[in-house]
Amino acid sequence: MVQKAKILLVDDRPENLLALEAILSALDQTLVRASSGEEALKALLTEDFAVILLDVQMPGMDGFETAAHIKRRERTRDIPIIFLTAINHGPHHTFRGYAAGAVDYISKPFDPWVLRAKVSVFVDLHMKNVQLHEQAMLLRRELEAGHAHGEGEQSAGGLLPELSARLAAAEEQAEALSKELAESGGGAAVSTAAHLERKLSGLRRALDALQPGASEPKSVESRQG
């Protein structure tokens, strides 16, 4: 049974959290609430999230400050952040969001379908990332067991091509998404493309390291946010 992805919803207003849950419930993933930046950072200490929806205007630690803390932590710095704001302060305010590490910046009221579609993309990529990681670790264990019995290359010959094909499919999807974002001209394009490239290039390097005769493979886990 495939484990559901976790989506972190951060907003100080309960009614806004309820609205987000109503919009995203159709994705059938695990929605986790946080009513402050501090609460969000606490949740990120122990849980892995596919994407974070972060309100900008919050008392105390606002969205920008919360994002800065998230990006400073090695464990969480690659988690996509979508900023949500009720006030449009113009280009400077939007730029500050991207500078803080957001992959997208959406003003309220937003189109529920658009928000759900954006979140869905990052959930899909996260699930592929998790699956590839698990398969890579399984392959590594099988290779180690196979080498102990002189069957390492035979085992790799059957599993590596399939794993490589799965990764190629994820790379193709990410390339199409990056192209779409670039054509839309949105400020999130560069940040989103760079995020996807880091994720997939890390997986590709780890997979290449599993090839027979390659040096000791590095853990994919160390490259995840």
Mean pLDDT: 76
In helices, the fraction of residues equals: 55-70%
**CATH level 3 topology of the domain at 6-118:** Rossmann fold
Tally the beta strands: 5
- Low-pLDDT windows of residues: 216-225
Percent of residues in beta strands: 5-15%
Shape: elongated
Report the sheet with the most strands, covering strand number, pairing sense and barrel closure. Answer: 5 strands, parallel
Order of helices and strands: EHEHEHEHEHHH
Based on the coordinates given, report the CATH architecture of the domain at 6-118.
3-Layer(aba) Sandwich
CATH homologous superfamily annotation of the domain at 6-118: Response regulator
Find the structural class using helix and strand composition: alpha/beta
In brief:
This protein is of the alpha/beta class. It is about 60% helix and about 10% strand.
How would you characterize this protein structure?
- This is Response regulator.
- Pfam families: Response_reg (PF00072).
- It comes from Streptomyces mimosae.
- Keywords: Phosphoprotein.
- The chain has about 220 residues and is of the alpha/beta class.
- The chain has a domain at about 5-120: Rossmann fold, CATH 3.40.50.
- Helix content is about 60%, strand content about 10%.
- The protein contains seven helices and five strands; from the N terminus they run βαβαβαβαβααα.
- Strands 2-1-3-4-5 form a five-stranded parallel beta sheet, with helices on both faces.
- Helix 6 packs antiparallel against helix 7.
- The longest helix has about 35 residues, at about 110-150.
- It is elongated, with a radius of gyration of 19 Å.
- The two termini are about 25 Å apart.
